[in-house]
Design brief:
The protein is an alpha+beta fold. The chain has seven helices and 16 strands. Helix content is about 25%, strand content about 25%.
Length: about 350
C-alpha cells in the first residue's frame, strides 16, 4: 500500500530535491546562454547592495614646476539596497492520482513516485525558466517587469540615467545611401562604449536581439548582401544566410534573430532591435537563499525544490519550487534600441 509516509524518504528531502532539479532539462533561454552577458552573484541575504560611483577619467590641469600638487578627492559613491524577488509555484499530487501504482515492492513504489515527482518538477521548472528569461529581457532593455506587466525595477530611474532615444534604421528606404546601415551600427557602438566609461575595456562586444520583421529587412538589405559578395562568405548567401532565428556579425555588432515564446509573452517586437554590451559586467543576476531552515545563511542557488505533504489528512503532497533572483543592469545608459522604419 502506498502511503504518504513515502515522502519522508531522504530522496524527497529539500536538499535532495534541490540537487536533483538542477539535472532536469530546462527550457532554452537565449539571453541566459550568451557567454559574458550575465554574471551570477549568489548572496546570503534578501537584500543586494549596489554601489554607484563616478569613475570616469578626467583631464589634469597643467601647473608650474614647484607648485603645490592638486589633490584628487576620494571617489564619491552611493550605496543602495535592492530586494530580490520571489518566484514560487507548486503542483499537487493527490492520493487518488497514485491509486493505480502497483506495489510490486516498496522499491518499485518509490521509483514510480520519483518519476511522477520529477515530471511535476519539470513542469514547474519550465515556467520558472521562462520567467527568468523574461527578467533577463527586462535587464537588457532597462525595465524588469512582472508576469502581469507591472514594473519591478526601472534601472534607468533607479540609477538616474537615461537610455538613448530609439534610432530609425530606415531599412525600407527605396534608395538607401551608401553605407547607411554601417553608419547606424557605428553610432550605436560609439554610444554604448562611451556610456560604459571604460567598463570591460577592449573585450566588450556589442550584441543585438532583433524582431522578425527587423531581421528580415536587415539581412535582405542591399548593403548587407553586398558585403558578402566577392568574398569567401559569398557561399553563405546561397546556404541559408539570414535564416530565421540565426545570428551573424555586421558593423561590429552580433545580430541575433530572437526567438521568443510562442504566445509572444517573452520576445522582441517584430519591428524593433535591442542593443547591449557583452563582457562589460553591467548585467548581474543576484540569487538569495531559500526560505527553509535547510538553507539559512547559505549562498543562494538558482532554484529550490520541496515536497510539502498533507500532515492533517494524508490526502496529498505538494511539489513546490522557489527561486529568489534579481536581474540588475548597473549601466542602463549603455543600452540602445532601434526600429525598422
Amino acid at each position: 500500500m502506498l502511503t504518504m509516509d513515502v515522502f519522508k524518504q531522504d530522496a524527497f528531502s529539500a536538499i535532495s530535491l534541490t540537487a536533483s532539479v538542477d539535472k532536469i532539462g530546462y527550457v532554452p533561454g537565449l539571453l541566459g546562454t550568451i557567454p559574458g552577458l550575465f554574471v551570477p552573484v549568489p548572496v546570503r541575504t534578501e537584500m543586494v547592495m549596489i554601489e554607484e560611483r563616478e569613475n570616469a577619467p578626467a583631464l589634469i590641469q597643467t601647473t608650474p614646476r614647484g607648485a603645490p600638487v592638486k589633490q584628487k578627492g576620494g571617489d564619491r559613491s552611493k550605496v543602495r539596497a535592492f530586494r530580490t524577488v520571489r518566484l514560487a509555484e507548486g503542483s499537487r499530487i493527490t492520493a487518488s492520482e497514485l491509486q493505480n501504482i502497483r506495489a510490486f515492492g516498496s522499491e518499485t513504489e518509490l521509483k514510480q513516485l520519483q518519476v511522477e515527482v520529477a515530471r511535476r518538477q519539470a513542469m514547474i521548472r519550465a515556467n520558472i525558466e521562462l520567467t527568468w528569461e523574461n527578467m533577463r529581457m527586462g535587464a537588457v532593455t532597462g525595465v524588469v517587469k512582472d508576469a502581469d506587466n507591472t514594473v519591478i525595477y526601472n534601472w534607468a530611474t533607479e540609477f538616474n540615467q537615461s537610455i538613448p532615444v530609439e534610432i530609425d534604421f530606415d531599412l525600407d528606404a527605396a534608395s538607401p545611401a551608401a553605407g547607411a546601415i554601417r553608419k547606424k551600427c557605428n553610432l550605436v557602438k560609439r554610444s554604448i562604449l562611451k556610456a560604459l566609461k571604460g567598463l570591460g575595456g577592449n573585450a566588450v562586444r556589442i550584441g543585438a536581439i532583433a524582431g522578425d520583421a527587423f531581421w528580415d529587412d536587415l539581412v535582405g538589405h542591399s548593403e548587407v548582401e553586398k558585403t558578402f559578395l566577392a568574398t569567401a562568405q559569398a557561399a553563405d548567401l546561397r546556404n541559408g544566410f539570414g535564416a530565421a532565428w540565426e545570428t551573424f556579425n555586421y558593423g561590429g555588432i552580433q545580430w541575433i534573430n530572437y526567438r521568443g515564446s510562442d504566445d509572444d509573452t517573452v520576445g522582441v517586437a517584430t519591428d524593433k532591435a535591442k542593443f547591449f554590451p557583452i563582457g562589460a559586467g553591467i548585467f548581474q543576476i543576484a540569487m538569495s537563499p531559500g526560505e527553509s531552515f535547510d538553507f539559512v545563511n547559505t549562498l543562494g542557488q538558482p532554484i529550490y525544490s520541496h515536497i510539502v505533504p498533507d500532515r492533517d489528512r494524508n490526502m496529498y503532497a505538494d511539489v513546490e519550487q522557489y527561486s529568489y533572483p534579481l536581474p540588475v543592469c548597473t549601466m542602463p545608459s549603455a543600452l540602445h534600441q532601434a526600429r525598422r522604419t
